[in-house]
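Lab notebook page, bench 4
Experiment: in silico fold of construct C2
Operator: M.H.
Input chain length: 192 residues
Purpose: comparison with the prior construct
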Amino acid sequence: MRNPTHPERGAVPAEAALMMRVLAGDRPALVEIHDRYYPAVYRFVSLQVADPDLAADLTSDVFVRFLEAITGPNPPQSTLKGWLFGVAKNVVRGHYRQVYRHPEVGLEEDVDSDDAELDAAVTRDEERAALADAMSALTEEQQHVLALRYGAGLPILEAAETMGKTAGAVKQLQARAVAALARQMTQRTASV
């Protein structure tokens, strides 16, 4: 029977069983891992990068690293979900390091659509960029907790386990992060 104060604890043995299947060469288990965790990892990544296509690419990189890890000498030892989010955090960090060192200039594309559709797409892109910009002004820990809670949709206990913190510490960190993000968004809106 599950402990009512820790309902997620049943997930760890299920993850361990799934990992054992993967390590034994069970290909359907790999598909199950991808189908189960891809949406949450994608949301986690997309909260930290403004471009949905880039978020999909970075999320795919996480799963490529997973495939490399399971065939290497050190497969994931912690919870699978925690390992995937840890790798996702590193992939996003590596992306921003790369962008900082080698900035890219995008080419304009000819868009064949009506003005309302184009205006809506531009507005969405501007909003995502503003959110990503405001997120970048937060501390790394604040970005991580917001990405886990709102991007990946993890409950407090799972976010705490993933971050190696207590549930209370995650709640406080989340509250400070939301307040800091609200301040950043307000400052950016006021300056426009």
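Observations: The radius of gyration is 19 Å. The first helix runs from residue 11 to 23.
Next step: discuss at group meeting.
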